[in-house]
């Protein structure tokens, strides 16, 4: 009788441990780029719905902050709108971290103005002079006699660094520029100010702002993918080494046709061909 009781108790304990393992959700932490934020948000929601045993937490803060968190081992995935720097790779390796890049989408950085602004096309040189503070009035580039209000991303942003690479070429942004922390903040600022200019990832451009043509080329899915548009770039997710388990499944989902449909829905450029889908408003 005692042996039977022991077997029952042992069986119940094994069941409890098995149930606890099944109920314990795996967790993935994602931090970084506000540009990549809509892609991460849309794909993680779909992934968690299909994989209820996985919980994913997401926050922005900028590409630099995401990469810093990866180096400090406080995030599993760092999202970035720029390539990791050599000095960041060196620092990561000194801490036992091996950053591995995963391209999840293409993007185009688009200068935007208020919808009532008459200017439609600017060259890279004109954009550089505006952001350096050398061109200060819209009439100098074919617009009305209005002072230009320069709005930029802050220096922790991957988009800021991409703008520096494509436009500024290491020249300093005018100290009169308003430095804002997110794409969303830039959209709001330009929509409310007919004097303003800013720059956004393609997925953030909506009807409240007017996108400008650059060097005579309009930003689109096609011109971004072909790199014909002069400010096209890749968007990244970085992991410490090759991902495994649920993290590997999630990144594979983001890069899959189903994940890339979400990329396209959010207004960004997919890395694989997907059927047309409406842009999320």
Write the layout of secondary structure elements.
Elements: H1 2-23, E1 26-32, H2 37-50, E2 54-61, H3 63-71, E3 77-80, H4 86-94, E4 99-113, E5 121-122, H5 124-132, E6 149-153, H6 158-168, E7 178-180, H7 183-191, E8 196-201, E9 210-211, E10 213-214, H8 221-225, E11 232-240, H9 245-255, H10 257-265
Parallel strand pairs: 1-2, 1-3, 5-10, 6-7, 6-8
Antiparallel strand pairs: 3-11, 4-8, 4-9, 4-11
Helix pairs in contact: 3-4, 9-10
Describe this structure as you would to a colleague.
The structure is a single chain. With 281 residues, the chain is an alpha/beta fold. The chain folds into 2 domains: 2-105 and 235-265, Periplasmic binding protein-like II (D-Maltodextrin-Binding Protein, domain 2); 107-225, D-Maltodextrin-Binding Protein, domain 2. Helix content is 38%, strand content 22%. It is built from 10 helices and 11 strands. The strands form 2 sheets. Strands 1, 2, 3, 4, 6, 7, 8, 9 and 11 form a 9-stranded mixed beta sheet that branches. It has a two-stranded parallel ribbon with strand order 5-10. Helix 3 (63-71) runs parallel beside helix 4 (86-94) and helix 9 crosses helix 10. It is globular. The chain starts with a helix and ends in a 16-residue tail after the last helix. The relative contact order is 0.19. The model is unreliable at 1-24 and 277-281 (pLDDT under 50).
């Amino acid at each position: 009788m005692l042996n039977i009781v022991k077997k029952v108790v042992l069986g119940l304990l094994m069941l409890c441990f098995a149930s606890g393992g099944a109920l314990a959700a795996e967790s993935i932490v994602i931090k970084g780029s506000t540009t990549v934020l809509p892609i991460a948000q849309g794909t993680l929601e779909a992934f968690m719905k299909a994989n209820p045993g996985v919980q994913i937490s997401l926050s922005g803060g900028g590409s630099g902050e995401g990469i810093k968190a990866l180096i400090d081992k406080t995030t599993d995935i760092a999202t970035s709108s720029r390539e990791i720097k050599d000095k960041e790779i060196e620092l990561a390796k000194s801490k036992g971290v091996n950053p591995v890049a995963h391209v999840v989408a293409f993007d185009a950085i688009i200068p935007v103005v208020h919808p009532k602004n008459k200017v439609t096309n600017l060259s890279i040189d004109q954009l550089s002079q505006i952001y350096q503070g050398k061109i200060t009035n819209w009439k100098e580039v074919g617009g009305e006699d209005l002072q230009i209000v320069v709005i930029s991303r802050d220096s922790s942003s991957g988009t800021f660094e991409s703008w520096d690479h494509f436009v500024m070429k290491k020249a300093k942004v005018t100290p009169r520029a308003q430095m804002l922390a997110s794409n969303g903040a830039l959209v709001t600022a330009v929509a409310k100010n007919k004097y303003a200019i800013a720059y956004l990832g393609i997925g953030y451009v909506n009807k409240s702002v007017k996108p400008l043509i650059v060097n005579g080329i309009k930003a689109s899915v096609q011109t971004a993918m072909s790199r014909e548009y002069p400010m096209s770039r890749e968007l990244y997710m970085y992991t410490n080494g090759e991902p495994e388990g649920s993290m590997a499944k999630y990144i594979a989902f983001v890069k899959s046709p189903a994940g890339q449909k979400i990329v396209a829905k959010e207004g960004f450029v997919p890395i694989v061909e997907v059927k047309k889908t409406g842009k999320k408003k």
